[in-house]
Amino acid sequence: MASVVEICNNALNQLGASTILSLTEDSKNARLCNARYESIRNAVFRSHAWNCLMARQELAADTATPAWGWTNQFTLPADCLRVITISDYDYDYKVEGRKIMANISPIKLQYVKLVTDPNEYDTLLAETISAALAADICFAVTANATLVTSMKEIYKDKMGEAKHVDATEGQNTDPNMGQVDVILSDEFINSRF
Asked: Are the C-beta atoms of 133 and 11 separated by less than 8 Å?
C-alpha cells in the first residue's frame, strides 16, 4: 500500500538522504517533508487534468448574485483544486476566487479533485510527486546546488512521462461528456477566422 511516508521516502532516497518513519518524527528530513509535502502535491495536482483525480458535479447557482457582469455565481466544491470545464462550454464562465461566474444555471462541472489517499494515485503520479518533493527540499537536505539542478531535471522528465501516459488513456470527442481530448478538423479550420 502506498503512503505519504513512502512518497516522501522515495524523494529522500533520490537525494541519498536518511529515510523517515513518520512525518511527525523529530528529524530534519521529517520536518521538511511535513512542511512541504501537501503544497508540492497540490501544485502537481493542479498542473494537469490527471485521470485519477477527475470529478464531476452539477452545481446550482448560489442565492447571492455577482455585483455586476454575470447573472449567476456558483461556489466551488471544497475539494476542487482546479476547474477543467463546465459542460456546454460554448457558454462563457470565469473562476474568481472560490466561485464560478456564469450566465447559465445549473452548471455541470468537471474538476481536479483533492485526493489525499496515495492509494488512489496513478503510479506515475506518485513518482512525479516524489520527484517534485526531492527537487523542492534538495538544497535544504544536501546543500548541493548541482544536485538541485539534477533533481529539477528528473522532476521535469517524470512530469512529462506521467502527463503523456495519463493523457493517452482514452479519448473523448463529445463536449457533452466533459473535456474534449482532440481538436476536430472543422474546429481547427474554423479557428483561423
From this structure: yes
